[in-house]
Amino acid sequence: MGLSFTVGPCDGEARRGRLTTPHGVIETPAFMPVGTLGAVKGLTAQALADAGATVMLANLYHLTLRPGIEVIERLGGIHRFTGWHRPILTDSGGFQVFSLARLRRLDDDGVTFRSHLDGAPLRFTPENVVEHQLRLGVDLAMMLDECPPWPISESDAAASLERTGRWAERARRAWEAGVDSRRGGGEKGALFGIVQGSAYRRLRRRAVDQLRDLDFDGYAIGGVSVGEEAVLKRAVVEWCAPALPPAKPRYLMGLGTPLDLVHAVRQGVDLFDCVLPTRNARHGMLFTRRGVVRIKNARYRDDPRPLDDACSCPLCRRQSRAFLHHLIRAGELTGVVLATQHNIRFYLDFMRRLREGIELGRLDELAAETARHFGGEAAPAPSSTAD
Fold first, then answer.
1. Which residues are catalytically annotated?
2. Tens place of pLDDT for every residue, the chain, 387 residues?
3. Does residue 385 lie within any of the structural domains?
4. Nearest one of 91, 67, 101, 99 to 81, comparing CA atoms
5. CATH code assigned at 157
6. Which of 37, 322, 350, 371 is the most buried (most CB within 10 A)?
7. Do the domain assignments include residue 380?
8. Are residues 157 and 295 in the same domain?
9. What CA–CA distances, in Å, run from 199 to 137, 237, 310?
């Protein structure tokens, strides 16, 4: 089987969904922790499951470089290799076209990277990206796309979109051929198309129309958080999400402050990923129900309170702000692990509350609460999806 998606209660454009994959069910809207190399930094697979994660994102570019597709396939596929037995989504390397621009060469057939590890060439095409993901056995696969930078002229963005459109057609054909050739080899996942078009409404709608015609299993909104201001990020979501097929899952790639999540959920987005909770944890920025706590600040040195009394993560159940302050300031690895567990739990609990808000028709209340506690928070946009 591939993927099935059912939509339940709605609150405006926001919808409560159930995404069934070969390795389990994802209740949506859902947040996918980023495990670039097959693991979320600082967390075991069991710890990630205990936090409530139902899906993890891994990075195809990085896994292809090390340990290599052949190694993972020989060891039983990505789920057996990583020990994460719930759904896995892999990105396609399209974001690395943007983030590793100095290390890659684009042409109409694909992209050639120069490895950031040793300079060796790595060739990605729409066809071999699909093949790699089929060999890994992922649940949710992404097509190869070109993620353009911002700023970019409309004419250059249009040329980039034309290339991505051609790649989409090739990826769709390769996916069908690859699935057909592997019949009887186990359950198969699903392929998502990626909407590009930079911050130009006309181009974004052109991309939506083309991808709808190709009938992908799901649809992603890519090319956000690449240097554009917040108003443009939100405009892109507003242009794209409601126009995508309502019976298919919608995924916003790489954008994930609490305010971003609420805004996109209200536009009908179902899936999210972002390195923000894990990366910020390593720098002592902790998310709580009442906003962000910068735990390195001296004010927390003698603070006996739990970080967040509404949280049930290991840190908040047993230890104080003062203890975490001590560990993070001292550079103790345990502090990073505890902070990461907390931030991941916060994000997963936050998405659960949004799902409940949709069911109860209370999403406006949650949006207002989020704006109240996070409205002044200028969390940095990630420079890379790798974490």
1. 91, 273
2. 568 999 999 999 999 999 999 999 999 999 999 999 999 999 999 999 999 999 999 999 999 999 999 999 999 999 999 999 999 999 999 999 999 999 999 999 999 999 999 999 999 999 999 999 999 999 999 999 999 999 999 999 999 999 999 999 999 999 999 987 775 555 689 999 999 999 999 999 999 999 999 999 999 999 999 999 999 999 999 999 999 999 999 999 999 999 999 999 999 999 999 999 999 999 999 999 999 999 999 999 999 999 999 999 999 999 999 999 999 999 999 999 999 999 999 999 999 999 999 999 999 999 999 999 998 554 444 445 678
3. no
4. 67
5. 3.20.20.105
6. 350
7. no
8. no
9. 34, 10, 38
The strand ranges marked E within the chain are 4-11, 14-21, 24-28, 30-32, 56-59, 88-91, 104-107, 110-114, 121-124, 140-142, 190-195, 218-221, 250-252, 271-273, 285-288, 291-294
Whether 200 and 71 share a structural domain = yes
In this structure, what token pair is assigned to residue 267? 């536009």
**Residue pair 134/90 in contact by the 8 Å Cβ criterion:** no
Select from 287, 300, 263 the least CA-distant residue to 348. 287
Strands 190-195 and 140-142: parallel
Q: H or E stretch including 149?
A: none
Residue 3 in tokens? 């993927």
Can you tell me the distance from the alpha carbon of 175 to that of 134, in angstroms, rounded to the nearest whole number?
A: 8
Q: Are residues 317 and 259 in the same domain?
A: no
Q: Can you tell me the distance from the alpha carbon of 264 to that of 70, in angstroms, rounded to the nearest whole number?
A: 37
Please give the Cα distance from 272 to 289 (Å, whole number): 19
Range of the domain at 294: 281-371
Strand 24-28 with 30-32, pairing: unpaired
Q: What is the DSSP letter of 87?
A: -
CA distance 95 to 76: 27
The answer to whether residue 54 is domain-embedded is yes
Do 163 and 34 share a structural domain?
A: yes
Task: Identify whether the C-beta of residue 236 lies closer than 8 Å to the C-beta of residue 224.
Answer: yes
* pTM (2 d.p.): 0.96
